[in-house]
Amino acid sequence: MKITEVEPILLRGETAYGAAARDEASDNGDWQLIVRVATDEGLTGWADVETLAPAAVAIIAGQGMSVLGFRTLGELLVGENPLDVSRLWDRMYVGSAYYGRRGIGMQCLSAIDNCLWSIRAQAAGMSLAALLGGRRRERIPAYASTLFRETPEAMEDAVRGYIAHGFRAVKFGWGVFGEDSGRDRELVAAARAALGPDRALLVDPGWYPAGWKNPGPMRGRREAEALCAWLADYDVGWVEDFIHPENFEEYAYIRSRSPVKVAAGEQVATVWEFQRFIAQGCVDVIQPDLSRCGGISVAARVAEMAEQAGIELVPHSWLTHLLTGYSLQLIATLPRARFVEFNVSQSPLTRGIARASFALDADGTVPIPDTPGIGVEVDPDFIAAHRVN
Questions:
Q1: What domains are there in the chain, each with its CATH number?
Q2: Sign of the alpha-carbon torsion through 279, 283, 285, 291
């Protein structure tokens, strides 16, 4: 089997990121990149990637250079055997080393790696979880993942809606959080009151102390410690990704003093970074994002590190159903698994890309597909209607 095409597909939508006063929030609904890897035997892998979509097209299928390290990812793969996933990861990493290694290059590599794993599972006639070593569970509790609303009343309305759908846990993140410290506490208090004592509340404050609309200096040590201290008053299950992702030392320092569990890792990439992040004691919950970390190839090794370190692994998966599908397959293989992140804030663009049968059961769990590949199919008509390249 050989790879015949690596196609970046750029999609355009009309919805802005953010949260209104009472309506459901929206993720990135203006641009989205998905990747298709085709083979000469008719097997195809699809994956999404959260990155600067228009620029990513050139990295995958633009004009490369003759010198090793400046090649496009597509030209490195066409003609290769898609089943040689590990070798092709190294080939992409070295072949793009002078402009890649992290950031947008690694994010594109991650999507392609996921496609290759999907193709490999399809070729074997088994689910990705089975290919990775076997399913340890058939379902997993899901938490509703959304943005902070603007008022306590809107927070309560949102929580009641998620409870009505069956969720036993909710994560609020970013949105207006950080713009007003008094309001921050009111919003968290409202969510906790509406959830009651038997449901989990998770908080993702974002990196910026003044909110995502006002990027500036990162939180200082005293601010981070104070944040963890008052969040503990509301029985928060974890505080997520609230320190600059490259400041490993600060994560370790705050985690050693925080009364709340610390979760992070969505911006960490490559096995080597995860080794340092975990070894330095940065987190209680490691959160590799399969569209950023280096794909399934890296995430599967992170799972081994997490088990050895005695920490939890919950993939970050706030994108389309494709990313949820890959995350579920990884979760199915874990010795211990607590949650899958369920993006309830999908825009019309991210929601329409893939068809999925994910359904929240009455007990708040989501069944994990056990069909060849990842159990998610794209909608070709929707893609054709929204693609711009």
A1: 3-125 (3.30.390.10), 130-380 (3.20.20.120)
A2: negative
